[in-house]
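JOB MANIFEST
job_type = single_chain_structure
chain_count = 1
residues = 462
[input]
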Amino acid sequence: MKKTNYGFFFLLLTLVVTSCNNDSDSNELVDVPAVYEGWSLQWNEEFNEAQINTNNWNYELGNGTDYGLPIGWGNNEQQIYTSNSENSSIVDDEGASVLAITALQDNSGGYTSAKLTTQNLFSMRFGRLEVRAKMPKGQGLLPAIWMLGDNRSQIDWPGCGEIDIAEVVGNDPSKYYSTLHFTNDENKHGEKQSSNLLSGADFSDSYHVFSLDWTPETITFSLDGQVGNQVSIEDDMKEFLRSSYLILNVAVGGNWPGEPDETTIFPQTMYTDYIRVYSKNNFQAPEAPALDIDEETVGQVIEVGIAESAIKDSFTHLGSLSVISYGPGAPAILSSEIAVDGDASSVFDFPGGNWGGAYFELDNPKDISAFTHLKFSLNKPDAFVNSEIKLEAGATNAIVYLAGYTGTELTDGYVEYTIPLADFTGLDLTGLTIPFSIWNPQDANDAFVEGTVLIDNIYFSM
């Protein structure tokens, strides 16, 4: 596999690029030209140096809490990201110098991996991106080549926009997914996803070129030169008219791939041979649209007072709070006059079919260490037999499962649940930030279920 030093000199080549079918001999080197006719190489990473180039790459570290996310990076992932060489390094593979990102299981049964980004070092807005990579496989693994908007610090996901160039769910290693995440015109999570299959092979067998062609009108995903899907950038997809930075990582566990099991073999490594970004000659990019926080944040269109209506009227310990909906299966949030306390309750209308939930967030952290139990009342469909009930406090969070508790029947279809705070193992009760959240309602077959849930009379008792 010959590497080219692009830092010295470029020759514009007039050539025809031969696309490779998905069922071709995947061990053959894919023909990638140094420079396409009419294009210029804008940025590239060939991974030819002895160590990872910190002029090109940052590390994101830990479990997500250092970045304002819940433990598990918002997806219930299990890995801890490190900058250790055993999790990421430049290695020789098939005679070439490549980046290796390796997921490991440690002696305690936990997992480590690595996540590298070009945030504040390199970003792109329109053009062509090509990544030649070989993916790991195994139950519970999720390797990814993706992008997030440069304005991530200004607006929460998905308002910053996410472009997933290639994701491979480890228990189905012959399929890769390409996805766009954004905030749609109803202030809900918008998603456009496609998938493509290899014939007679999987993405751990050999290297493949995953490509993105990005214009102000369309985003096109290709594999080995063959177009897999093209998405039009619609009026409510302003996220994709702004710049984004690159991310490479291997996640372990979480909502999508599930947890590793006895069939999962560690270590598992994603190998990246090169990344090349091209710009179209003489292209004049339109001005990036101004960011509209209200228009582009999920859950902005929520009636004033909905959060307060779910809290027991006489329980004032928590102070002011808001409610936020999150995830591809996030519920619409409304209010109802059917209540067991006060004049109204909060309504979470779950669409089913995917993970998601909503949470109440305090304006200021509160100490609840004097209390012993969480109490709340739900009016829910019979098909809704289980869900995650989650509390958060600073860098700690804890989950219990509703199916493990028997409620007390009240009026108007409500059931009151009483959960000991001791069951929320590891939660710091002195700095509560999320006093209640409900995630991933499921039916008796553990499938994400559609349904409307009324929530009322949340409080803590002694």
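[summary]
The first strand starts at residue 39 and ends at 45.
The chain has two domains: 39-280, 302-461.
exit_status = 0
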